[in-house]
């Protein structure tokens, strides 16, 4: 690691960012951020309350018209400079993420690249926010559509991808000309604090991005969502919290983007290249310690290859090294907090009680951090909790099937619909699966498919709206239609 921890932490602002200034909470309250690998306190931050949240919205509203009138090129240039700065600071961002979230350093570097890419992508999209013109079929008017910024937005992010979840929202909001209040997860606010500072250094004017980290999420979100000046909420997090926010959004009919939980099936057919499937499974399951909304949650493997797949997968998983993500060679870090460790432990225990066997792992790891040993479970029953709920840990349950129809039926047997993965050498089957699977994303012979240029999002209770791609900026704009009288029309 190219940075000294104490020097890095000293660079991270600890206040609330309101109208371009870092300040203390009105109440003077603070909260601590912990390293999940060691239990050590990394920093003490100002904890925003309702008054601070409203001050942040006031700041966002005060500059919203001026910001909306800036040229797309100006906004594009700010995002491009932010991309360059985040990339220059990759050592610092990577170390911060490993410190506060636990992911292995090499993966944290991967997230810097991935997260920064949203800034570059939306710097390019800012100047290509196309409308359309078309003649009315009757010839009476020319019809013109154009996109306008939706207005002040509340952006709420989770802890699992501290940089990318922020850039995926801030990038398109800046590109579209919206002002924002960002509320990072209280478990991992340091990356967002440093990212916001970086946006200021990239030239973002005061008040456009305000950051209110704090220990009580609802103390921040409730007054903001009750204020009719707020026009949008973009949330990434769990489905239960998403539902609460959707209900609150109804009162002022807010635009909403909801990136919620997942329960991804990873389907391996009898004709799959098993080595390729195992490699894909490692990415789909073990990336981010299994703490990803896209994480493969259920391995649904044809009965004729299930044993071979499980053995190869367990052998690869056995090569993982569990430990502090900052340490050399560590490829699997701790879970985010004690509650997460307890949940993963109880999911595995429940599966074992219902007949599953751990081929490898199956228990918490050693040390003071929240470690769980990477695990492969076989003979998992469909009614085990591990097959129904989002695991969010390094645990791979394997279920078997005999027919294609059965594989699709098992895969769709969940209220979630975010990511899915299909391994087969038969391309006709790939298209049948694409039709049959009720998921917003599908990886075909590919285990990691997230990309800033792709429209990311779910169906069913995994949410609504898309982040990234050409679609990502549309979430932050309202389409306006103008009908222009045709001077040559008879009417
Ligand atoms: P969470 O729902 O507990 O928290 C997410 C954010 O919401 C945090 O900032 C939290 O402080 C805030 N929050 C919590 N309660 C709130 C309330 N009552 N009102 C307003 N805000 C509130 O989720 P998490 O544990 O941080 O993240 C994990 C979840 O996020 C998983 O379910 C995962 O699948 C999901 N996720 C989804 C995507 C996606 O793109 N679909 C990406 C990453 C994570």
UniProtKB/TrEMBL annotation:
> What CDD domains does the record point to?
ALDH_F5_SSADH_GabD
- Catalytic site: 259
Q: Which Gene3D superfamilies match?
A: Aldehyde Dehydrogenase, Chain A, domain 1, Aldehyde Dehydrogenase, Chain A, domain 2
**SUPFAM superfamilies per UniProt:** ALDH-like
Pfam families in the record, alphabetically?
Aldedh
Alphabetically sorted, this entry's keywords are:
Oxidoreductase
**GO BP term (any one):** gamma-aminobutyric acid catabolic process
InterPro entries in UniProt: Ald_DH/histidinol_DH, Ald_DH_C, Ald_DH_CS_GLU, Ald_DH_N, Aldehyde_DH_dom, Aldehyde_DH_Superfamily
Superkingdom: Bacteria
Domain Aldehyde dehydrogenase span(s) in chain numbering: 22-481
Which GO MF terms are attached to this record? succinate-semialdehyde dehydrogenase (NAD+) activity
Which PROSITE patterns would you find in this protein's record? ALDEHYDE_DEHYDR_GLU
Member of which family?
A: Belongs to the aldehyde dehydrogenase family.
Q: What is this protein called?
A: NAD-dependent succinate-semialdehyde dehydrogenase
What is the organism field in this record? Corynebacterium phoceense
* UniProt lineage: Bacteria, Bacillati, Actinomycetota, Actinomycetes, Mycobacteriales
